[in-house]
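We were asked to recover a plausible sequence for a given structure. The inputs and outputs are reproduced exactly as logged, with field labels preserved.

PROBLEM: sequence recovery
POSITIONS: 220
GIVEN STRUCTURE:
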């Protein structure tokens, strides 16, 4: 039986070799639609849009494009669990690599919202998220003529732009003269039009602290 490491390598190789060469090595189906098991009515050829699943399971009616996928699938029938979680103090193991990947997300997103059950990487991000379930708006605009309040410091910061003197945000990409009132508008333009990526800002910051206590009351 192939080891978990071997399975992983085979799977990666099979995905990379999804080409016409594979199609040439795929045995042609018999006239009766025989042992392929995929239920494909079209016969594979050089211009076929749908490849025949040439690797059928001998325990059920499922078929697969790649032998490594079939090997993993057979683990469901035999009960073998070669895909082991490598996180410290976790002894979970799974029959397929897909199930292991799904499980791994629970380690990365350990903090769960008790209301909508979404998961987050850190407690501070979860607490910021909790404000979306709350009617409390602890972040008030400092402009004396504005009575708007917001759930997060980031939303307040974004709103504050409307009170600042207009300073056009000009695109600095060569040959582009577009300008925007807001920085986020300029960034969106650069991302969509010029393919420039920006680092994501953290959802939760230290100054977000006050107001979380109110949000936690709602979650109880």
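RECOVERED SEQUENCE:
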């Amino acid at each position: 039986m192939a080891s978990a490491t071997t399975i992983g390598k085979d799977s990666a190789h099979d995905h990379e070799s999804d080409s016409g060469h594979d199609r040439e090595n795929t045995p042609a189906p018999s006239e009766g639609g025989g042992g392929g098991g995929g239920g494909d009515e079209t016969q594979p050829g050089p211009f076929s849009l749908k490849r025949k699943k040439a690797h059928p399971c001998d325990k059920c009616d499922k078929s697969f494009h790649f032998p490594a996928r079939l090997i993993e699938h057979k683990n469901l029938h035999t009960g073998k669990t070669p895909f082991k979680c490598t996180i410290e103090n976790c002894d979970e193991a799974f029959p397929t690599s897909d199930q292991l990947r799904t499980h791994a997300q629970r380690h990365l997103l350990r903090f769960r919202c008790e209301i909508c059950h979404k998961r987050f990487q850190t407690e501070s991000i979860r607490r910021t998220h909790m404000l979306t379930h709350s009617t409390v708006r602890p972040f008030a605009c400092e402009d004396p003529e504005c009575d708007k309040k917001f759930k997060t410091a980031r939303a307040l910061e974004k709103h504050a732009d409307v009170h600042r003197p207009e300073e056009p945000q000009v695109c600095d990409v060569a040959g582009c003269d577009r300008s925007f009132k807001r920085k986020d508008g300029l960034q969106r333009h650069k991302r969509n039009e010029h393919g420039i990526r920006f680092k994501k800002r953290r959802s939760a910051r230290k100054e977000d602290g006050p107001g979380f206590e109110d949000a936690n009351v709602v979650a109880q």
